[in-house]
Amino acid sequence: MSQAAFSALAAFLHERSGLVLGPDKLYLVETRLGALMKREKIADLGALVARISSPTGEALAREVVELMTTNETFFFRDGKPFDHVKTTALKRLHAARPPGQPIRIWSAACSTGQEAYSLAMIVDEARPWLGDRRVEIIGTDLSRDVLARAREGLYSQFEVQRGVPIQMLVKYFRQEGASWRLCEAIRAMVTWREFNLLGDLRPLGRFDIVFCRNVLIYFDQPTKARVLAAIAAQMPPDGVLYLGGAETVLGITDRFAAVAGERGVYEPVAGPRTAAA
């Protein structure tokens, strides 16, 4: 594998998805793209880069991006962000919004849907005090394949064991052979949309709650700042942003401030402003 070909692939992935592919990630290229290159009878990485860069290579280019993007996720991941939504954010937003105004939630880079469906179950559990308040949940990802899985709402035994409380499993899932399918009512609460985080967020509308967790870790600093600024522009002053436990806005942007006493929870700061040191 030539260094020039690897650098060209890295530049392509960064432009298309924001993914930073360092020299230490050579093994990822070999393990994730090996089968595709064999199927397409592509001899080496240089030939692959030439194919995906050609005018007729868009379908293959999309497949390469999807294969190289990490889709790790599970229900109620890390617990605390979902607890904060349930005990604090949702109640505060409900009290602050006039009757008839929906609360909008965005699960960015949603992968196979566990995060968005976790939020849907929380909203359903809150119905006794939410009343008829409309809550719109949108899950987006750049991968068509994972969105197709998300729409199905069908998960393996391992996937439901990895985070779903037993009472919710019994209430919201139905067993189908060796798998478990979410009930239609919960599936209907989420709208799925193919979307690249590097794109224009304005068509998605404004969001009161944004989950963008364990995504920024794959971006370089300028891309992180760009994405965070775009998210901030689509949120009201009392909105809430949730990042992954290993992610932060410090040193990247001053469009968000940390919520005191909460890890990975941020609130928008009036902008536009420049990135903070």
Any chance you could write out the topology, listing elements then pairs?
Blueprint: H1 3-17, H2 26-39, H3 45-52, H4 58-68, H5 80-96, E1 103-107, H6 114-125, H7 127-130, E2 135-141, H8 144-152, E3 154-156, H9 157-161, H10 166-172, E4 173-176, E5 179-182, H11 184-187, E6 190-194, E7 209-211, H12 221-233, E8 240-242, E9 256-258, E10 265-268
Parallel strand pairs: 1-2, 1-7, 2-6, 7-8
Antiparallel strand pairs: 3-5, 4-5, 8-10, 9-10
Total domain modules? 2
Give the distance, in angstroms, between the N- and C-terminal Cα atoms.
38 Å
Multimerization status:
single chain
CATH level-4 homologous superfamily of the largest domain = Vaccinia Virus protein VP39
CATH architecture of the largest domain: 3-Layer(aba) Sandwich
H/I helix tally: 12
| Shape annotation | globular
What's the level 1 CATH class of the largest domain?
Answer: Alpha Beta
Q: Strand tally, please? A: 10
Short note summarizing the structure:
The chain is α/β, with parallel strands linked by helices and 277 residues long. The protein has helices at residues 3-17, 26-39, 45-52, 58-68, 80-96, 114-125, 127-130, 144-152, 157-161, 166-172, 184-187, 221-233, and strands at 103-107, 135-141, 154-156, 173-176, 179-182, 190-194, 209-211, 240-242, 256-258, 265-268.
